[in-house]
Write a structure and sequence with these properties.
ATP-grasp, 32% helix, single chain, nucleotide-binding, globular, 14 helices, ATP-grasp superfamily ATP-dependent carboligase, alpha/beta, ATP-binding
């Protein structure tokens, strides 16, 4: 995109509350805006993060403390605004940030350019229980969902839905950092559902149980976009998840821009119903029995792989937001079906293969090499720590003579009587990532 299309006098501030050094979406936003001549300020925990090495970062700012109250988040952002000294486009990079900015809109509006978002829409769509009701109102397919009122109801609902079932906490941004609770898991027995429900108070939000839609080839899809002030969706498109980490669940390791009118229609229908404005990221899974695309998640911020949808004019969702909020027209770029996006640390073999089509890597870039090098050093240390932790746990369980029970978000090991499952692959599944590593959405 020619630099002249964006108003380079207006800086951008990226907000990330989650502590996650491997969030490649933040780096993608830094590069996208920085290459267009925008001053990019990053409010995030940058300790050891490869993002801090990017030559496109104008300035790093300390984030709010973990579990910060709204007043603390407002104070942090207003302090950054005072240093920037002119109104900036504010782009939250995680759900917690998007919800906080939505709640603080009146307080932040004098210092930042923000989409005219109606009401508490970001909080409503990020809430998994509320999303069920929103999908019903908009006639968008959604997995059959039960919100149990007791541990006994949780066990009963798991059985009635047909094991395995997907268990989610409705407001995952409220989960305590070191609780061991994950935002989404697959449970395979009524007892596991009961045990999860008993931790509701600790989790800080409702537990919901959903019918399990098995993974499979050509079943996992996503849609990224930006809704401008007129309600038009641009800056993104539909994509297909070719490889996930861990396999069968988790975040997108390899994605491809693939035309899909059905997914695009569902995205437009839902954003129209909500009056949504701003950046969004939707996750879908196609039901193998009916062919319907079920909405799994609505993330009110950029997805980690948003750079997959950089079109023929160089437009993506963060550039679309900057253009729209500075009252500049969005260029009519041509879609680029077949364009691929690869996250090297989750799919190293795919990253090493010669690219037959247009491809972007999450970490390596010829004009910004330092973050890629820093990522590999950080990733090696991360993997070493995980292996040591596994060895310690294995040793402890061996001494105790008790085999630990593991609940993973992955395909089930054996078919169930409900025909909702598929046989698991014979290869061992990789260790599930932390919630921070999953970044938002797959």
């Amino acid at each position: 995109m020619p630099e002249s299309l964006l108003d380079t006098r207006v800086p951008a501030v990226l907000l990330r509350i989650d502590r996650n050094p491997f969030h490649h979406g933040t780096l993608g936003a830094v590069r996208s805006l920085g290459r267009a001549g925008i001053d990019v300020h990053v409010v995030a925990d940058s300790t050891g993060s490869p993002v801090r090495k990017s030559r496109f970062v104008s300035q790093l700012h300390p984030p709010p403390p973990p579990g910060a109250a709204l007043a603390d988040i407002a104070a942090t952002l207003l302090r950054v605004a005072a240093r920037v000294e002119r109104p900036a486009v504010l782009i939250p990079m995680d759900d917690a940030g998007a919800i906080a900015v939505s709640r603080l809109r009146e307080e932040l509006a004098p210092a930042y350019l923000l989409p005219q978002q109606p009401g508490a829409v970001p909080e409503r769509v990020a809430d998994k229980a509320e999303l069920t009701r929103l999908c019903a109102a908009a006639d968008v397919p959604h997995p059959l969902t039960v919100l149990p009122d007791s541990a006994a109801q949780a066990a009963s609902a798991a059985w009635r839905l047909g094991l395995p079932v997907v268990a989610k906490w409705s407001r995952p941004w409220l989960l305590p950092a070191h609780s061991g609770l994950r935002s989404t898991v697959v449970v395979r027995s009524p007892q596991e559902a009961r045990d999860l429900y008993l931790r509701t108070e600790e989790a800080g939000s409702q537990l919901l149980l959903q019918a399990f839609l098995p993974p499979g080839p050509d079943r996992d899809w996503f849609f990224h976009g930006y809704v401008d002030r007129s309600g038009t969706v641009g800056g993104g498109g539909p994509g297909r998840k070719l490889c996930a980490w861990p396999r069968g669940a988790g975040l997108t390791a390899v994605g491809e821009w693939t035309e899909n009118p059905q997914v695009g229609t569902l995205a437009q229908r839902l954003t129209d119903e909500l009056g949504y404005r701003g950046i969004f990221d939707l996750d879908f899974r196609r039901c193998g029995a009916t062919g319907d695309y079920h909405l799994l998640d609505f993330n009110p911020r950029p997805g980690a792989q948003f750079r997959l949808f950089a079109d023929g004019a160089g437009l993506d969702v963060v550039r679309a937001q900057h253009l729209d909020l500075t009252h500049r027209p969005l260029p009519a770029g041509a879609p680029l079906p077949g364009r691929a996006f690869v996250v090297e640390n989750y799919a190293p073999l795919a990253a090493l293969r010669p690219a037959r089509r247009t491809r972007e890597l999450a970490w390596h870039a010829g004009d910004d090499t330092a973050p890629g090098r820093a990522m590999w050093g950080l990733w090696a240390a991360h993997v070493a720590r995980r292996l040591l932790d596994r060895l310690r746990r294995a040793g402890a369980s061996g001494v105790a003579g008790v085999r630990p029970r593991v609940v993973r978000q992955a395909a089930p090991p054996t078919p169930s009587l409900t025909d909702l499952t598929e046989p698991a692959p014979t290869a061992p599944a990789p260790a599930a990532p932390t919630d921070d590593e999953k970044a938002s959405s797959c």
